[in-house]
Amino acid sequence: MAGSTLATGRRTLTRLLAPLLCLALAACASAPLRGTGDLGVVIERASGSVQIVDNSHEQALARVQGLGDLSHASVVFSRDARYAYVFGRDGAISKVDLLTARLVKRVEQASNSIGGAISSDGRVIAAQNYSPGGVKLFDADSLALLASVPAAAGPNGQPSRVVGLADLPGKRFAYALFDADEIDVLDASTPTAPKVQRFQHIGKQPYDGLASGDGRYFIAGLYGEDGLALFDSWHSDAGVRRILAGYGRGRQALPVYKMPHLRGWSIAGDYAFLPAIGQHEVLVADNRSWAQVATVPVLGQPVFVMAEPGGRRVWVNFAFPDNDKVQVIDVPTRQVIKTLQPGRAILHMEFTPRGDAVWLSSRDDNKLVVIDTATLSQRRTLPALEPSGIFFTWRASRMGM
Hints:
Keywords: Signal. This is Heme d1 biosynthesis protein NirF. It is a single chain. The protein is mainly β. Helices cover 7% and strands 46% of the residues. The longest helix has 29 residues, at 2-30. The radius of gyration is 23 Å and the shape is globular.
């Protein structure tokens, strides 16, 4: 009797465990477990797709399509670095699963947008819009709309275009209003009822912004005048002050072939390296006093000025007609030490997490170029469809990205 009961129990246990065993075997057969810390996303602007890439093995893993107009796309990552949120120029936000290479959800939230950010707790996605202007907040899990924050009107009476949106500590976002000459700070602690602090008359036509790595400072570049506007979040009562005023844009009226981008890690050591609009130079400012201390002559109009993670060198790409070149600046000497010509139309640069390599997108050669930062030599190329932005998942744990 006891033996019969034991046999019956074994048969029951086998029936219960069999489905779990099958699931486990199926999972093992479908895909090995892996982390996401060395993954990234490459924007393929013309085809509305993104490539998922592995920067450890320098290879492409998958392509995800159906993301719409990606002509000025940017990406932020979920707190666990599994999901990429892609902001398209057509106003859509696409949530992409990096592990399954699947488009999880896509929402069309505006007609013209140029990027966004994710809150410090990873729960709120903020999108900045050209049309109809303003900022919208979304739940990071479901992409459900939480709040719509209007922008102040510009001289034409229309809501201002929003630029430079960056996350700050404490579930806050800072951004600039191009048409209304403002910097606004949005507190999303209660995301369905956000609060906005406005700083008016900060300078003419702020065109882009960046937050410092510690989230203390937000800097907006000014297109309508020489200089930049600085907001110190530790002393918000002091308002916004002008820095690097009169750095020389008016010295020679040069056509601006492409608006420079401030976003990126342009702070290296004790100095901030910033593109000078319309000039063939990079501005260097002391990041304590924010006084200009030097300029570094470069071969063309800089677009991205990005410091290596270690801060020893700064890499610069350029507007047309010099957009086939990249220059490397040595920070201690403030001298250009290398000029590379890696491909036509170098639109973006992205460093690996600790800076052993930099990936470059060459739009007109349909390729990605991996450069060894120790030797400044080409390590590898990968095919891509008119690539532009490159975004690695280390951004998930950094502020202002």
